[in-house]
# Entry
Amino acid sequence: MAKSGDGIRILQGLLVFGNVVIGMCGIALTAECIFFVSDPHGLYPLLEATENDDIYAAAWIGIFVGFALFALSILGIVGVIKSNRTLLLVYIILMLITYAFEMASCITAATQRDFLTPNLFLKQMLERYNKSDTDNNNDKWMAEGVTKTWDELMLQKHCCGVRGPSDWQEYASAFRSRHKDADFPWPRNCCVMDAQGSPVNLDACKLGVPGYYNSNGCYDAISGPMNTQAWGVAWFGFAILCWTFCVLLGTMFYWSRIEY
Amino acid sequence: MCSSWVVLAFCCLGQLCADQSLKPQLAAPQLATNNPTLTTVALEKPFCMFDSSLHPNKSYTIYLYAMKETASAISSLVTDSSGKPLDSTFQQTSGGQLGPYKAALFDVPNCASPPRFADVGDVNKVSDVLKQYLFRVGDDGTCLYDPNFLAVCNPPLAPDTTYRFKYVLLDSTEGIMKDQTLWSDPIKTRRVKLPLKIDTWPGRRSGDMIVITSILSVLVFLLLAGFLASVSSAAMGSKDSSTETRCMSQTIQQSEPRPQLSSE
# Structure
């Protein structure tokens, strides 16, 4: 059962190196997930209104898992250097729990990403944008969030609707029930604005004259950041888990071979 | 004598031919991309359509009449018996259902210098270009409910309905119709679909998700198996070493009392 001293040293060295990498990746995961949770593009109200905001839940789990990985990696380094069986057993058990949480985060992010289709945002935009007769406070909150987010999105990204301005013409909507088609074929923010924030030419915008209204859809501006977030959480977490798998197997082997 | 009659006949024939081929057209789709909408239709003004009927020293006006296509079975006349154009309104004809109503009046568009599409790019000129080039039927949403409104009311049209339009040339001083175009081709306003019918089911699972889930599940299984294996091997190893030490301690105990006895 006795391994040569060199073999033990090499295994210890590898495990310490593995834990250092885990610690650094843990900090990186925490930083990445904090960045996503801070919602730099202001798209969270759209997800909240679809009641499908689990990619944010995955990012929240990622924050805590990253921190746990960092703390456990320090414990692991201490345990390996001191060859302490108790410390290493605690390390392995806690790591397994953290592993399970991170696995949940990755799978959630990857799965929920599949639900974010153009039709989902289209339906939500038509039903909630500028909705005036809301059923309860929650409905009102969501409608206000969606309206504010879409207004800013159309203004800043120079886009209109999900696939294009024709979305407003092809479908009935809460907006259509509040504003007449003759005055508002689409929301005012779909028009090209001047420096003061009013349309350059309202009649040209209503007629759809090229250059006076935003003719492209907003779906790319929405799905781009959301895809980045979902894939960032899912794939980076997956990479960390693959590495952690190897380190944990090595630690278990090391633990079973050291004497009390 | 004969030749002048022939010339006159040709002229009349020419006018009739011109009338039969001239109808109100939709505004150019490159310019007005959102046309027709739910409740409006943008029509090109009648450029060069009435030039053969214009006398240089008289003033003319153009009237635009609109009616639903179903009304052509009831009445499609735009003049009364004396040749004067009808003064029907949107309300009188129930929005064009019972016959044509007058939707607009404007000056004869300038055939010699029509507005140029290239000017549309200039922010200062675009309003003039649009005003000269086209007319938007259904533009005014408030005139129907405004009791003080005295001009020609142009209320929004009905969605998902077919309409037909006609231009009439009127001599302003005499008030008599001088020329008219044919009724336009049927133009249908848009209809809306309900958002409830939109299908939000995402369809197939993406490849990313399948790879991540399957590989991670396998890794977790291997980890748990490895953990159990290492715990059991550590337990077995400690059992072996504990039986060894017990034997050794027994032999030590047995060998210890003898030296004590001999000393006593």
Q: What stands out?
A: Strands of chain B lie at 41-44, 60-68, 101-107, 134-137, 162-171, 177-180, 187-188. Chain B has four helices and seven strands.
